[in-house]
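Q: Hi! Curious about what FHA domain-containing protein looks like structurally. Here's the sequence.
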Amino acid sequence: MTGTRPEVLARWPRVRADLRTDATGTLSVNDVDHACSAASVARLRAGVLARCVAVATTVHRPVRLEITDSLGTQQLAVSPDGTVRGAHDDGTVDAVAEPPVEASPCRRCDVPQQVTTTTCASCGVLEPLRVELVPVAVLDADTLVHPDDELIERLRATLVDAAPPPVVPVTPVPAVVGSGASGPASFESLLDVGLDPEPVAPRPTRARRAAPAVRARSLHLTFSTQASVTAPDGVSLGRDPAPADGRHPVRVASPGMQVSKTHAFIDVDDHGRLFVTDCRSTNGTRVLSEPPVRLDPGSRHEIAPGTTLELGDVRCTVTLAD
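A: Let's find out. The predicted structure is below.
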């Protein structure tokens, strides 16, 4: 009887961590190093595991973690659900999981958090277990380094646009009754007998965003990472934003690369109301209200003038220009 074939980790992505006894260290994702620090070695280790969970969640599979501390070097397989198992040089993974990872204090409010938590429910901070000194981007299609063929195909599949609308067939013009003709009637014969050609159904078109009725107000945007910007009442924010539906593109400086290429839209309607839309960004958009609100991707959310938004590692305060 043949035994079950062991699970084998993909070569990419690969995470390495070097943890020192003073609770500092280096975390490397695909050979890109990030300096780390925490209040204790235990919190540092939890932060490393949380980063691995974020990477595993992005690629939808376990990732390899090579972690070195005062006890030596250990190879682990970290899954999107936070499960940790032993791994080996050949990529095989132990069938039995390690004990569950204990919750670790939030970096802002110290409320215990699981390694799978992306936003602290108590204080609202993103990545509550982050230990990198400079925020790092969760892997997306723009930051892939050595993806395998399977992952490339999956990414391509998510970028394929919807199929074009079907072509509506044209109904043949019927023969004129009593004309004796064996084929379709000519246009002239239809005129002679007082008939009109059967109308052809129009080809369906995709709905487009209606342009605002009036563009009377401008936006004043104050950023935590760059100079303020005054722009028309429809803006597209991101590292390299697209001018979607006529919106004015505003580039946002993101030291930790946590702002997506096109991260969010901000619009003003003809009544002076402000709206923000998260453009399915990698790290999300939060309205820093009481309590903070994380926007659903693609949904339009009304905000008051003076509201501060959190776009990854950048804060942006939105007001109406005089």
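A: A fun detail: The CA atoms of residues 103 and 113 lie 5 Å apart.
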